[in-house]
Records
---
Amino acid sequence: MSSSCESNCDDVDQLPMEIESLCVRCKNNGVTRMLLSKIPFYKEVILMSFECPHCGFRNNEMTSGGKVQEHGVRYNLKVVERKDLDRQLVKSEYAMYGIPEVELEVPYGSQCGRAFQSSMVSENFLLYFPVVTTVEGLLCRIQRDVADTIPFQQANQCFSCPEMREKLQSFLAKIAKLSNGEHNFTLILDDPSGNSFIENPNPEKIDDRLAIIRYQRTLQQEKMLGLAPDDSGEPDDEGAPPVWESREAVRNEVLIPVLHFSVDCPNCWHKAETNMKFVNIPFFKEVVIMATCCDNCGYKTNEVKPGGGISDRGMKVTLTLTDEKDLSRDLLKSENCYICIPELELEVGAGILASRFTTVEGLLNSLKEELESSSLFALGDSAVPENKHKMSDLLQKLSEAALGKLPCQLILDDPSGNSYVESLSEHGVDSRLKVEYYERSDEQNEELGLNQMHTDDCEQRISENEVND
């Protein structure tokens, strides 16, 4: 096994299982060794290593032994210096990855052995395996597999072409320059199962080079993961009666305060019921609370969305936590809100916790849980002792803050202006709560998609359409 894959077994007496299996290179029988293990603070995995005594071919891979996560995940990593190549990486068997700069794209669901059964005919197509490695290790594996594949495919007509051989050699040269840190590039890792991971060297800080996006899986991805039947189709909502006539009708409807409608469960693809309600937060604005529960598989999820649009200005809320009363304040965090706790030197990006309606205590506990799950390599046995102590100390301080034992400041910076913290003073000034409004920068407007919205002549167009009608 690769030295970069360091695992910790719960049972130290557990021995690997040996199975005789076919070598995909020479077609003789080799030996596959399998071991059920666990990566600390991550999940259960099955480690497999193959070796052929006839041709010397070796390979190792990792298969997830845990469950499929609630959402898919996509990582965009900008590699701009040498230390970015040392980031540890977990790639599941369902993940795709790509490097746009060299036109490399590896599709979803690549399975063991297919890289040597498929003809490598262009520089933008390569099948690969699930691995635990580093960014540099991933690039080295690409070099090794492409270089090993060429000699065994010489009989193929496409490899007899000098132009194709030159193209492959050029591709290998590009990958070599990337692995040596000579050029900047972007690594995209997209995993519908949600079981892949790229390390953040400083989990307590916002990683400007790593963007993490969680998303709902498509039907095709559900089928690939085995979560939906192969013969299932997209839901046909054509001709279905509207659930409500308008927002105003819902707000004014006294007899039906909660909306109920059916959706397809993203876990088992059966019909599940979603409850939705508009809630007016006093002294703030309206929000939409949605909760889904599937009676078939027990899947549950909830979500909070601002009911209005993006505010004219961004807002910054600073709350000074001094006693337990501050922990019980209601809090709304939008999906665009950044979180900062200066006393802990903690900065959290907008997409980490998504939007939620909770309390200050609930937010601090959610931050602690998210840091524990996302700091896999900062807390494991292979972590640098200094970094491990630093992360453990941060988690301890977060726990103390959530219990009201550690005074600190909680800062919510929301460019969309859709976040909120409850004031304990209904009419006067809350001395521990400070709200500031500011003009957004051009970069923030770009992130919110406002630079592409042109509404100057909307009223004129509406009037013209009414006249034409």
Note: The two ends are 71 Å apart (CA to CA).
---
Amino acid sequence: MASSDISLLLPSPGLYHPSQWPERYAWLQALHEAWEMSSAEHSSIRIVENYSAFDYPFDRIKRLYDINVHGSFFTAREAARNMIPQGGGSIVLVASMSAHPQTPYNASKAAVRHMAASLAVEWAKKGVRVNTLSPGYMLTKLTKTILAHDQELKKTWESLTPMGKMGEPDDLSGAIVFLASDASRFVTGANVNVDGGYTVI
């Protein structure tokens, strides 16, 4: 299965403003209708904010959890409902290396990892595998916008990564295809770091 096939499974996160995400998760019907395209599910919904623990507004924390935790859960649940009648499948949720200083963000991504492990156990005998992918500092459209105004931050992120550079989105493709394919058919409840060595220093 090619990474381009996997990307077809979900509507682009850009189609929905994060503030619209919690409202009944209406796009899940689109996921259901697109199901015949593949038996692998890759879920990534991104949000980046910058508050200290003392200053983080409650409504922003709730929004963060709605996107990172609740969004991942309902995506995985809908995917599993389609997979089980077909004999199983593979779900890949995107966690994080949790390097961001904001406590709510770290906690939300830790929740995704633990949730994936719990779902892996619950659905294992039904043929559904659940794993997580934890990217490091990546040059996505979002981070490029941020770094365009802060080159020092880019240098800091690169210096924190043993490989001395930030990753590209394509660097995630191999791990996603591995976790989504039969190459990892005996792998569930695992986390794969794609972070240039960040988490081992």
Note: Residues 3-200 form a domain with the Rossmann fold fold (CATH 3.40.50.720).
